[in-house]
Specification:
By secondary structure, this protein is of the alpha+beta class. It has two domains: 113 residues, no CATH class; 137 residues, no CATH class. It is 27% helix and 26% strand. It contains four helices and 17 strands. A six-stranded antiparallel sheet has the order 13-14-6-5-12-15, with no helix packed on it. A three-stranded antiparallel sheet has the order 9-10-11, with no helix packed on it. Helix 1 packs antiparallel against helix 4. The radius of gyration is 26 Å and the shape is elongated.
Length: 263
């Protein structure tokens, strides 16, 4: 086995995956409330330590390491810039917290009640029934009792910092704001939404103490300059490891052509 060939191959695979993740982050640089992903890797142990303690100890190879292994991709839950829009039904969350919207009607993974989804995208609108919905997906926005919020059309709306919605001098509802202590358990499900890790589990969610800002939205948390620089470095890493693989292949070819000759 050509040890260097396999080391370079793991480097290529890691760099290609890193480029895919970074490209997706760059594509969402203008997506409201988007949270970027980060690639996590760990060093692979040398063969003697990973497979069997009885393997022949090749000290020189062990000093080279065993290459890289990809770990589950993590989401960076940094807050994006708050951008004013002037729309009464737009809200941004200042601080930790999530808005709750209806999930799939088929229920959660356990077959129970319909799942709930979390989002930081506070662009809202009203549907034909007067229910407050997410403008990008049409999903209904829920209150503290996990019920849809109904508003009157054509009447000014005031959304307070605590999430209460005032219309025509009365409280018409309140946005449900939750915080998830274990953010690593959140999973992206598309459309800039996250799945609530365990709706009925104790301690899975708690009331958020964040502040709601009306007539504004949260911008993407992607830093385009940093992400573009990381993309360039990942590209160079893939190219460098590909070149090393070519060197290793040429060395094997020369060894076969030279040492394999019959005198």
């Amino acid at each position: 086995m050509n040890y260097g060939l396999y080391l370079s191959a793991t480097g290529v695979l890691t760099s290609l995956h890193r480029m895919d993740v970074l490209a997706n982050n760059l594509a969402n640089v203008n997506t409201t409330g988007f949270k970027p992903d980060a690639v996590v890797t760990r060093q692979r142990l040398p063969e003697r330590l990973e497979s069997s303690a009885l393997a022949d100890p090749q000290r020189l190879l062990e000093r080279l390491g065993g290459g890289q292994l990809l770990q589950p991709t993590r989401t960076i839950h940094a807050q994006g810039q708050i951008i004013e829009t002037g729309n009464d039904l737009d809200v941004a969350i200042d601080g930790d917290g999530w808005l709750v919207v209806t999930g799939d009607s088929g229920g959660d993974a356990s077959g129970g009640a319909p799942s709930l989804l979390l989002t930081r995208d506070g662009r809202f609108s009203l549907n034909a029934a007067g229910e407050l919905t997410q403008a990008s997906t049409g999903r209904r926005v829920l209150d503290a009792a996990s019920q849809p919020i109904r508003l009157s059309t054509g009447s000014p709306v005031t959304i307070r910092a605590d999430g209460e919605i005032e219309q025509a001098g009365a409280i018409a509802g309140a946005l449900r704001l939750v915080d998830v202590p274990d953010r690593a358990a959140l999973r992206k499900v598309g459309d800039n939404l996250f799945r609530l890790p365990a709706v009925n589990a104790s301690g899975a969610v708690r009331a958020a103490s964040s502040r709601v800002v009306q007539r504004a939205v949260e911008g993407s948390a992607v830093d385009p300059i940093v992400t573009l620089n990381a993309m360039i470095l990942a590209t160079r890493g893939a190219e460098a490891n590909t070149t090393l693989m070519q060197y290793a292949d040429n060395l094997m070819g020369q060894a076969i052509n030279t040492l394999g000759r019959v005198a």
